[in-house]
From TrEMBL, chain A:
This is Phosphate transport system permease protein. Belongs to the binding-protein-dependent transport system permease family. CysTW subfamily. Gene3D superfamilies: MetI-like. One of its GO terms (molecular function) is phosphate transmembrane transporter activity. It comes from Peptoclostridium acidaminophilum DSM 3953. It is a multi-pass membrane protein. Pfam families: BPD_transp_1 (PF00528). The chain crosses the membrane at residues 9-31, 70-94, 106-130, 142-168, 253-272. It is found in: Cell membrane.
From TrEMBL, chain B:
Residues 1-20 form the signal peptide. Keywords: Lipoprotein, Palmitate, Phosphate transport, Signal, Transport. It is found in: Cell membrane. This is Phosphate ABC transporter substrate-binding p rotein, PhoT family. It comes from the Bacteria. Its main location: membrane. GO terms for biological process: phosphate ion transport. It comes from Peptoclostridium acidaminophilum DSM 3953. Residues 38-269 form the PBP domain. One of its GO terms (cellular component) is plasma membrane.
Length: 285, 300
C-alpha cells in the first residue's frame, strides 16, 4: 500500500514536471514577444503586407505569413483528404487481411520519414516538374508546398479514418452480408456516413500537423513574404522562423518579432487542436 | 523489491532532470585545473567546413594531445565544429557557450564592445559573386553588370531579362538570396543595395548550398553565390563581372572586387596552449592550403 502511495506521488510529480516545462515554454515565448507587440501593437501585426524587421524603420506585419500558413495547410488537406479517405475505405472494407497487413504498416512508415527527405523530393520532383512543364519562371510555389505537405499528412488521415472504418465494418459485416447488401452499398450508405466525424477529425489533425511543418515546406515555397497565391511564392510562419532565427541578434526587435510569430503560430495550432478535441469528443473513437 | 527499485530509479531521473541546469558553473571552474581536451567552434556556415576539414586532418594525424606536444596529457583530441550563422558565432562568444566563434563578415563595433579581451584571427577572404546559370543568354550579350544594374535587378526595378539588355528573352528574372537577416545578405546590402530593398518576390534560401543549387537548376536565376561555391561548381554556375572587375583571386586580394567579406575566427580572453596550437595550425601554410582547397582566398 505504501509503495502504491509513493508510485502515485511520483506519477503526479512527472505530470507536474511536464506541465511546468510546457508552461514555462509558453511563458518564455510570450515574454520574449512582448517588445515586438509593444513596437507595432497586436493589430499592427496583422495590419499590412510588409515584413521588414531590420533597418531604420522596422515594419512588423506577419499577415502574409499567417495567410500563407493557413493557405498551404488547407491546400494540403484538400489534396490529401480524398486520397486519404479512399485509401482508408480500401484498407478497411476492400483489401483482404493479408494485403491490409502489408499496406497498413507501409503507410504508417510514411509518417516516420524525415521531413527533409520529403522536402528534397519536392524540390527535385515537384519544383523541377513545374519549371519544365508549366511556363513558370521558378517552380517554388504554394501549390508545390501543398502537394509535398499533402503527401506528408496522408498517413494521419488514413490512420484516423481506417481505425474507425474497420470498427464499423467489423460490427455490421455479418448483418449486412445476411441481408444481401452489396459491399459498395454498405460503404456508401453505412461506413462513410458513420465515419463522418472521424474523417473530419483526421482532416483537422492533419491540418494541425501541416501548420507546423517547417523543413519540407521551406524547401519548396520560395520563402518570399507575399500574400499567398496558388502558383506564387509564399512564406509560412515556421519557414520564417527557421530561416531568420540564425541571423537575428539576440535582444533585437527582429528577434522578438520572430518570437511573436511563434506565439501566433502556437495560438493558431492551439485553436485547431481544440477543434480536434471537440470533434473527437463527439465521435466514438 | 522490484517496485522499490523502479521507484528509486524514477526519482533519480526526476532529480537529474531538475539538476541539469545547475551543472554549468562548476564545469567552468574545473577547466582551470584540468587539461581541456575539447575545443568548440560555432558560427558561420561558410567557414564551418573549412575549420572542420583542418580539424579532421589534425585529429587523424595525432589522435591524442600528447602526440602533438609531450607536455600535454594523453587525452583524445576532440574538436567540435557546428554551423549556425555568423551572428550565432558572435553570440556564442558573448555568452561564453563556445571557445571560438566563426564569423564570415566584419565583427561590428557594438559586438566587440560586449566581448572581453577580443581577439580575432583572419583565415581568408570570400567574395559574393553575382552568378547566373551557364545557359543564361546574358553571357553572350554582356559579361559585365554595373553595381546599379545589380541593384536594379535585385530590387525588382528590372523585372524581365530583356530590360537588363535588349535581345535577351522576355523571361522573369528569378532573384535568389540568402535569408535577409543573415551575414551574407548584410554584406550584399552594404556593398551593393545601399538603402534599396531586395524585392519581396525573391526566393530566400536557407543555405549557400541551396542558393547555388537553385542557380544551377534554373536558367533565369541570378544570385550572390559565394566564391568558394563557384570554384567547387565550375561550369555549372557562371559569375559575372561587376563594374568591369571579375571575381578572380588577384582582384580579390587587391581589393578591387568589392563585394567581399573576411573569414574570421574570434575568441574572448587568453588562449590555452592547446588552443594556441590549433590556431597556429589554421594560420600555417598547411591550414592556408586547406582554405584555398575549399575555394576561398587564403589570408597569407
Amino acid at each position: 500500500m505504501k509503495s502504491d502511495k509513493a508510485f502515485e506521488l511520483i506519477i503526479k510529480m512527472f505530470t507536474l514536471v511536464s506541465v511546468t516545462i510546457l508552461g514555462f515554454i509558453i511563458f518564455f515565448i510570450g515574454a520574449e514577444s512582448i517588445p515586438a507587440f509593444r513596437h507595432s501593437g497586436v493589430a499592427g501585426f496583422f495590419a499590412n503586407e510588409r515584413w521588414h524587421p531590420i533597418g531604420a524603420e522596422p515594419v512588423l506585419s506577419i499577415l502574409p505569413m499567417v495567410l500563407a500558413t493557413v493557405y498551404v495547410s488547407f491546400l494540403a488537406v484538400a489534396i490529401a483528404l480524398p486520397i486519404g479517405v479512399g485509401t482508408a475505405v480500401f484498407l478497411s472494407c476492400i483489401a483482404g487481411e493479408s494485403a491490409r497487413r502489408v499496406l497498413k504498416p507501409f503507410i504508417d512508415l510514411m509518417a516516420g520519414l524525415p521531413s527533409v527527405v520529403f522536402g528534397f523530393m519536392g524540390l527535385i520532383v515537384v519544383v523541377g516538374y513545374f519549371e519544365r512543364h508549366f511556363s513558370m519562371s521558378s517552380g517554388e510555389s504554394a501549390l508545390a508546398g501543398g502537394i509535398v505537405l499533402a503527401i506528408m499528412i496522408l498517413p494521419y488521415i488514413v490512420s484516423t479514418c481506417d481505425t474507425t472504418m474497420a470498427g464499423i465494418m467489423k460490427s455490421y459485416k455479418i448483418s449486412s452480408d445476411s441481408l444481401g447488401v452489396s459491399k459498395w452499398h454498405m460503404v456508401r450508405y453505412l461506413v462513410l456516413p458513420a465515419a463522418k466525424r472521424s474523417v473530419l477529425a483526421g482532416a483537422v489533425l492533419a491540418l494541425a500537423r501541416g501548420m507546423g511543418e517547417t523543413m519540407a515546406v521551406m524547401m519548396v515555397i520560395g520563402n518570399s513574404p507575399l500574400l499567398p497565391r496558388l502558383l506564387g511564392k509564399c512564406e509560412t510562419i515556421p519557414a520564417l522562423i527557421a530561416l531568420e532565427m540564425g541571423g537575428a541578434p539576440v535582444g533585437s526587435l527582429h528577434y522578438h518579432a520572430l518570437f511573436a510569430a511563434g506565439l501566433i503560430l502556437i495560438i493558431m495550432r492551439f485553436a485547431v487542436s481544440m477543434a480536434v478535441w471537440r470533434i473527437k469528443r463527439g465521435a466514438d473513437l | 523489491m522490484k517496485r522499490i527499485w523502479s521507484l528509486i530509479v524514477a526519482s533519480m531521473m526526476i532529480l537529474s532532470l531538475a539538476l541539469t541546469g545547475c551543472s554549468q558553473q562548476p564545469a567552468e571552474d574545473a577547466s582551470k585545473d584540468e587539461f581541456k581536451s575539447q575545443i568548440f567552434f560555432k558560427g558561420s556556415s561558410t567557414l564551418a567546413p573549412v575549420v572542420s576539414q583542418i580539424a579532421t586532418e589534425f585529429i587523424d594525424a595525432n589522435e591524442t594531445w600528447n602526440k602533438v606536444n609531450a607536455d600535454f596529457p594523453e587525452k583524445s583530441i576532440d574538436l567540435f565544429v557546428s554551423a549556425g550563422g555568423s551572428s550565432a558565432g558572435v553570440k556564442a562568444i558573448i555568452d561564453g557557450t563556445s571557445d571560438f566563434g566563426m564569423v564570415s563578415r566584419e565583427v561590428k563595433d557594438e559586438e566587440k564592445e560586449k566581448i572581453a579581451d577580443y581577439k580575432e584571427f583572419r583565415l581568408g577572404l570570400d567574395v559574393l559573386t553575382i552568378s547566373v546559370n551557364p545557359e543564361n543568354p546574358i553571357l553572350d550579350v554582356k559579361k559585365n553588370l554595373t553595381t546599379e544594374e545589380v541593384m536594379k535587378i535585385f530590387s525588382g526595378e528590372y523585372k524581365y531579362w530583356d530590360e537588363v539588355a535588349p535581345g535577351l528573352p522576355h523571361n522573369e528574372i528569378v532573384v535568389v538570396t540568402r535569408d535577409i537577416g543573415g551575414g551574407a545578405h548584410q554584406v550584399f546590402q552594404d556593398k551593393v543595395m545601399g538603402d534599396a530593398q531586395v524585392k519581396a518576390e525573391a526566393i530566400q534560401e536557407p543555405s549557400m548550398g541551396a542558393l547555388v543549387t537553385k542557380i544551377m537548376e534554373n536558367k533565369d536565376a541570378i544570385g550572390y553565390a559565394s566564391y568558394g561555391f563557384v570554384n567547387q561548381n565550375v561550369g555549372k554556375i557562371t559569375p559575372l563581372e561587376v563594374d568591369g572587375i571579375a571575381p578572380t583571386e588577384g582582384n580579390i586580394i587587391s581589393g578591387a572586387y568589392k563585394i567581399s567579406r573576411p573569414l574570421i575566427v574570434i575568441k574572448s580572453g587568453e588562449l590555452l596552449p592547446q588552443e594556441q596550437l590549433f590556431v597556429d595550425l589554421m594560420l600555417s601554410e598547411e591550414g592556408m592550403k586547406t582554405v584555398e582547397k575549399m575555394g576561398y582566398v587564403p589570408a597569407k
